UniProtKB/TrEMBL annotation, chain A:
InterPro entries, A to Z: 2Fe-2S-bd, 2Fe-2S-bd_dom_sf, 2Fe-2S_ferredoxin-like_sf, 2Fe-2S_ferredoxin-type, 2Fe2S_fd_BS, Beta-grasp_dom_sf, Diverse_Oxidoreductases
UniProtKB keywords: 2Fe-2S, Iron, Iron-sulfur, Metal-binding, Oxidoreductase
The organism of origin for this protein: Thermalbibacter longus
Domain of life (superkingdom): Bacteria
PANTHER family hit by this protein: OXIDOREDUCTASE WITH IRON-SULFUR SUBUNIT
Pfam name, any one: Fer2
Name of the protein in question: (2Fe-2S)-binding protein
Automatic annotation (TrEMBL), chain B:
Ranges for domain FAD-binding PCMH-type: 1-177
Protein name stated in the entry: Xanthine dehydrogenase family protein subunit M
GO molecular function, one term: oxidoreductase activity
Taxonomic classification: Bacteria, Pseudomonadati, Thermomicrobiota, Thermomicrobia, Thermomicrobiales
Lineage: superkingdom: Bacteria
SUPFAM superfamilies: CO dehydrogenase flavoprotein C-terminal domain-like (SSF55447), FAD-binding/transporter-associated domain-like (SSF56176)
UniProt xrefs under PANTHER family: XANTHINE DEHYDROGENASE SUBUNIT C-RELATED
Pfam entry (one): FAD_binding_5
Gene source species: Thermalbibacter longus
Record keywords, A-Z: FAD, Flavoprotein, Oxidoreductase
Amino acid sequence: MSAEVGAGSAQRRAIRVTVNGVVYERVVEPRLLLSDFLRHELGLTGTHVGCEHGVCGACTVLVNGEPARSCLMLAVQADGLAIETVESLAPDEERLHPLQQAFWDRHGLQCGFCTPGLLMLLKSFLAENPSPSEEEVREAISGNLCRCTGYQNIVAAALEAARLLREPVAG
Amino acid sequence: MKPPRFQYHVPESLDEALGLLAELGADAKPLAGGQSLVPLLNMRLARPGHLLDLNRVAELDYLTERDGGLALGAMTRQRAVERSALIRDRCPLLAQAIRYVGHLPIRTRGTIGGSVAHADPAAELPGVLAALDGRITLQSRSSTRVLDPADFFLGVLASAATPEELVTEIWLPAVPERTGQVWLEVARRHGDYALVGLGASVTLDGDGTISEARLALIGVGPVPVRARRAEERLRGEWPATSLFREAGRLVSAEIQPETDVHATSEYRRRVAAVLTERALAEATRQITRETVE
C-alpha cells in the first residue's frame, strides 16, 4: 500500500516496486506512467515508448508475470508488484536468452524499436503455450506493431524460440 | 505524453470506494483496468480532478455461478474470463467473444466492469449482454440498481450510471440445453474494434424446430442492437440455409449503421447479413453435433 507524501497538487506517494528481482523504493507523482518510471526513475531504457496510448505495444512489460502495456499503468499502481523488463532476459553479457538468440538468428528485427515489447510478450505467451501454431503466434503478437519486418521473421523467430525453449541445448 | 494532475485515491473496499464517489461526485473518475481511461488521460482528453483506483478492491474480482447463470465481479480481468473453464462450459458466447477484446496484453489488465461502463458501441461485452439479456448491477453508497442492457446502454460512451454509481457486477444466464452460441466479427486486424460483430444464440426444440433465436450486433449503432424482426422470423421454423439467408437479409434491413472512415453503411449491412447467415448455421451445427455424440 503506497503511502501519501505531502498534499495538494504535488501529492506524491512512496512506492516499493520489484523490477527484475531488485526492490526499488521511490517517491513519485501519481500521474507518472510506469513506462516513464522504468526509463527515467530507474534508468531501465530497454523498455521503449512508442505511441504512449496503448496501441503500439513497444512498452510491453510483465506485471506479476502477465504482459501489460506500461504506458497504460501508473507507477503507483505497481506498488507491491513484480515487474519484468527486457533487461531481465539475458543471463549475462556474453549470452542471449533463447528468445533473443532466435530473433538474432532469424532476423526478427531491423530497427529494433518494437523488439523489447515483442520479447516480453512472447516470453509470457510461450510459457503458457510452449508449442504454438503459426496462427496462434500471429494472434498473440497482433497488439505489437512492427514497421520494418512485415512480421514474417518475427513469427519465424517466435516459433524457433519455442523450439529452443522446449529442447534446451545441453551445456 | 503525460496525464494531467489529479488526486489519487486507492480504496481497499467497495464501501470505501462508494463513499469516496458519493463525496467527490462528478469530479472523480473510477479507474478499472485503465485500457480506455489511461489513453484518454495521456492525451489529456480526460482531466478528472480525482482518480479512484479500484484495482485494490479485491471483493469485486470474482466469477461464480448464481441464479441459473454466472455472476462476474466488475474488477474481474478479461484474461481470467478467457482462461475460465466455467465460462467455456456455461457461457460459450462470452468465451468466444472475450478473445476479440483488444489484444492479449490489453485483456490481462482490462476488466469486465470497465468495458461495460465505458459503453463503446463496438465493444464485445455490451454485445454479449444484449444478446443474452444479461443484467448490470449499479451501486452507490445509498442504492443498488439492476438494469437490463437496453436500460443501461444509452448511447456512444454513454450509460445510465450516475457519477455516484459504480458498475459492480454483470450477470449472464447459463446456456440452456440444445443451444448453440456463436460470436463472429469482422475487423481489419484481429483485436481491432469490430466493423461489425454479431452474437447469436439458437435453441432447438425436441422436434428440431427453432424455439429461441437471439441476435445482437455491435458496431452498427450507438448501442448494441438486437435484431428482433429476424429473431421473430426464425422462431418455430426448421433450421435451413434458405431461412438463415432470409434472416441475414432481415438483419441488414433492420439495422441502421453509419458510414465512417472505417467502412460505409452499405458495407456494414452486407457484412451483418453474411455474419448472421454463418453464425446461425454454426450455432445449429453445434447442437446437431452434440446430439450425435
